Amino acid sequence: MTRQSERSFSPALVLIPGLLCDQALWKHQIQGLARSADIQVADTTRQRTLSEMAAAVLTAAPSSFSLAGFSLGSQVALEIMRMSPQRVCRLALLSASRGGLLPSAAASLRQAVTAIEGGGFEQYLEMVYPLYVTPARAADLVLKRCFLEMAHAVGPEAGLRQMRALLPITAPLTDLNQIRCPTVIVGGREDRRTPPALHEALAQEIPGSDLVLVNEAAHFTPLEQPGIVTEVLQHWLTREARRTSSD
């Protein structure tokens, strides 16, 4: 049997990028997981609400798939779980929360919207980059270039749509205990935007979920510690599903 035919029997994996991110966010994971899954990167740049984003992902996705979402993408993933949970066989949430923006995060988003509307897109990117990575990576020019290239590829207009889609999230989701598929939650121990306590709270809400807190990483775990994140997702994709008490 050829490698191509082996892959044809692999499960589908849909990856959802975050705010102002594109498939470059998942470059290492796409390469590392290529033999374990048929990978599709979702586009959430043209819609105006999380529900519209979730619907677009579902329209483009296979009938059954594994789903991984990063940051904004994790909120879209949770909306997909609300809309069509039967289609998702595994769930990974990276840099995620239970839903509902922290007051500080909401205030930062509103300030960002104002700045970008006023023509300050470049200044916003320069200001926000150090807040999303560990202090040790703030001067990493390769990582920063990747961050900036993704943001420019998405563009300010799509970025504004994504920010406005996040702002109405004012309260945590209340039905997370209905998620029954194998779930892993990944966060950076130094994440100041989505602190570890939020990842821990999310893990407590989803029965049987696994929590992985990554050392020497902040918000951008797939870029800051790509090897570790790929290894975690590889294990998540290939491990035997555990049965929950409701099965």
Structural commentary:
By secondary structure, this protein is of the alpha/beta class. The protein has a single domain, classed as 3-Layer(aba) Sandwich (Rossmann fold). 46% of the residues lie in helices and 13% in strands. The chain is built from eleven helices and six strands. Strand 3, helix 4 and strand 4 form a beta-alpha-beta unit. The radius of gyration is 17 Å and the shape is globular.
Q: How would you summarize what this structure contains?
A:
With 247 residues, the chain is an alpha/beta fold. It contains 11 helices and 6 strands.
**Percent range for β-strand residues:** 5-15%
CATH class membership: Alpha Beta
* Whole-number mean pLDDT: 92
What is the fold-level CATH name, i.e. the topology? Rossmann fold
Biggest sheet descriptor = 6 strands, parallel
Low confidence ranges? 1-10, 243-247
> Outline, from the CA principal axes?
globular
CATH architecture label: 3-Layer(aba) Sandwich
Radius of gyration: 17 Å
Neighbour order of strands in the largest sheet: 2-1-3-4-5-6
**Helix proportion:** 40-55%
Q: First CA to last CA: what distance?
A: 35 Å
Order of helices and strands: HEHEHEHEHHHHEHEHH
Number of strands: 6
Return the structural class.
Answer: alpha/beta
Question: Structurally, how many domains make up the residues?
Answer: 1
Q: What's the total helix number?
A: 11
Can you identify the CATH superfamily?
A: Alpha/Beta hydrolase fold, catalytic domain
